[in-house]
Amino acid sequence: MSSSLSVQFLSPPLSSALPCCKQTRLAAATTPLEPVSTDVEAARLEPRVEQRDGYWILKEKFRGGINVQEKVKIQKEPMKLFMENGIEELAKTSFEELEKSKDSKDDIDVRLKWLGLFHRRKNHYGRFMMRLKLPNGVTTSAQTKYLARVIRKYGEDGCADVTTRQNWQIRGVVLPDVPEILKGLAEVGLTSLQSGMDNVRNPVGNPLAGIDPEEIVDTRPYTNLLSQYITANSLGNPTVTNLPRKWNVCVVGSHDLFEHPHINDLAYMPATKDGRFGFNLLVGGFFSPKRCAEAVPLDAWVSADDVIPLCKAVLEAYRDLGTRGNRQKTRMMWLIDELGIEGFRAEVAKRMPFQELERASSEDLVQKQWERRDYVGVHPQKQEGLSYVGLHIPVGRLQADDMDELAHVADKYGTGELRLTVEQNIIIPNVENSKLEALLKEPLLKNRFSPEPSILMRGLVACTGNQFCGQAIIETKARALKVTEEVERHVAVTRPVRMHWTGCPNTCAQVQVADIGFMGCMARDENGKRCEGADVFLGGRIGSDSHLGDVYKKSVPCKDLVPLVVDILVKHFGAVPREREEGED
Questions:
Q1: CA-to-CA distance for 494 and 253, rounded, in angstroms?
Q2: CA dihedral sign, ordered 316, 319, 320, 322
């Protein structure tokens, strides 16, 4: 990679691109933005971090009023656990010994998140969740088998989840095993590096990249390069590991917007300009307990060659200028609000290789009027004679045997490739049409991971919940399945309805983009007794007319959710009560 970080791509032939269309709400603005004041004091634009001994740290003059996590980073650089092999010594130390000092407790509870390791102190003491990096959600049978071997040794404590960022999380890991697990990950081409805390999360792309007859561009080269840059090819990249907060990125390659660009800190939206292929840019989308914001146009376009330099410039502007006080006000959108979109844009341009940034293109390639497709089930690929099969993974949870069987069918019927989706499902691509009938008869598809789930089940998403997560207020995965099953006994639904469950206001399951969302809270039953409950959201949308849902009803006891959901489905989604349906037969 050159010093300018410019990366050469083969741009798709323009003749193959679908006709350009009018702007969507998610496309970068093509008309001049409202004038925004850029009168920001020069002192405010002084970078708050500096490089020392290869790592980026907060300058002493900016350390007043910083949050606890920033103090932990200052006390000891988290990346040293990986880049200077501190994990080896940590893994040899007993938990009893580690608990004796604040510094070592911070290692296991905070700094290990830079290695993708999350101690489950509250609900699974001594056990870790390990989050991987899996750009574009693409994985192999060999990788899947390795992860199955890792979690199998932990018995009932071991399992895996498909996340809402096309990623794997494995559970039950114990600290002494970590060095060996990290080596094993590297051998199969995986890493967990920089996947937690104030780092860039897994780059999301089109789950149908390269196989979709309707795709705009294959997102895999871009998401792979983003991941390689972010982690320095899994060796560690300290230039982007001391951000003020977590940061999400996606590359859009579909008209369906499977990538959910409106909730990412940076989204690349395909667009041509003067015969060149590239991307308009959206910035600032995020969810948090105190605020949810949709991404806004940066009024900028970059060529395909400048995907990495642009990402670097945005990250460095955020790293240098973002505030580090109240953690609820440190996501990138808060910086954009403070500087104004033009002020933020100027800071990004200043960090580009030639200190320039082109204005947005009017030639968006994402079609505005597009009915979002369903990838679950059997669908033809662009390659003649091949199909992909989308499998429903109930609330994204798998056991070791499930993963081994998935790897087996991917090898037997496809090319050993598996693709994870942000809806917590899995796609088997490259299946010869002559093998489809046999694949669909496999016990795994008949009994566990159906390509033909019910309408409500196929749109079901759930976070980890309080089974493992210390921040979750309620149990989510089992409850989501149980409530959905009970609702299906009461009503018949004829159109897709997406229901998302999240255990707390951190909204990892993205309830605000669901048709119906459930956010865990404590409620009171009819006797005034505290019980597990949920705030119910309604009206979220994804795709070209995306917007965030609103609270429909607050603090509903979980035991009262079934009749409420039935009522919502009948009133808002055209569901028919089973009694009436049976009476009409």
A1: 29
A2: positive
pLDDT tens string 496-506: 999 999 988 87
- Answer for the pair 108, 91: CB distance below 8 angstroms, yes or no: no
Question: How many Å apart are CA 146 and CA 344, to the nearest integer?
Answer: 43
Q: Which residues of 240-274 are buried (b: 16+ CB within 10 A; e: fewer)?
A: bbbbbbbbbbbbbbbbbbbbbbbbbbbbbbbbbbe
Q: Could you give the CA distance from residue 243 to residue 335 in angstroms, rounded to a whole number?
A: 12
Q: Average pLDDT, stretch 58-67?
A: 97
Cβ atoms 214, 9 nearer than 8 A = no
Which amino acid is located at 94 in the chain?
Answer: S
**97 C-beta neighbours (distance < 10 Å), count:** 10
Mean pLDDT of the chain: 90
- Rounded CA-CA distance 498/503 in Å is 17
Q: Taking 70 as the threshold, does the pLDDT of residue 444 lie above it?
A: yes
- Whether 555 contacts 539, CB under 8 Å: no
33 has a pLDDT exceeding 50: no
Triad 577, 580, 585: Cα angle to 5°: 125
Locate 176 and state its tokens: 């002494």
Q: What's the rounded Cα separation, in Å, for the pair 58 and 50?
A: 6
CA neighbor of 254 nearest in space, from 547, 515, 17, 10: 17
- 513 vs 168, 367, 500, 560, CA distance in Å? 21, 20, 8, 23
What is the H or E stretch that residue 551 is in?
strand 550-557
Q: What is the pLDDT of residues 173-224, one digit of tens each?
A: 999 999 999 999 999 999 999 999 999 999 999 999 999 999 999 999 999 9
Indicate the length of the chain as a whole number: 585
CB 296 within 8 A of CB 31: no
**Residue 441: exposed, middle, or buried by beta-carbon count in 10 A (0-12, 13-18, 19+)?**
exposed
C-alpha distances out from residue 427 to 162, 293, 373, 409, 420, Å: 12, 30, 14, 11, 6
Return the structure tokens found at 115: 């290695």
Is the pLDDT assigned to residue 1 strictly greater than 60? no
pLDDT of 15 above 80: no
Average pLDDT of 306-334? 97
Is the pLDDT at 532 greater than 50? The verdict is yes
Whether 32 has a pLDDT exceeding 60, the answer reads no
- Residue 456 pLDDT more than 60? yes
Q: Kindly report the number of other CB atoms within 10 A of residue 150's CB atom.
A: 22
Beta strands at 249-251 and 266-273: parallel, antiparallel or unpaired: parallel
What does the alpha-carbon distance between residue 237 and residue 5 come to, in Å, rounded to a whole number? 14
Nearest CA to 545 out of 423, 367, 422, 375 is that of 367
Q: What letter does residue 502 receive in the DSSP assignment?
A: E
Beta strand 266-273 with 159-162 is unpaired
Let me know: does 295 contact 247? Beta carbons within 8 Å: no
Rounded Cα–Cα distance for residues 512 and 549 (Å): 5
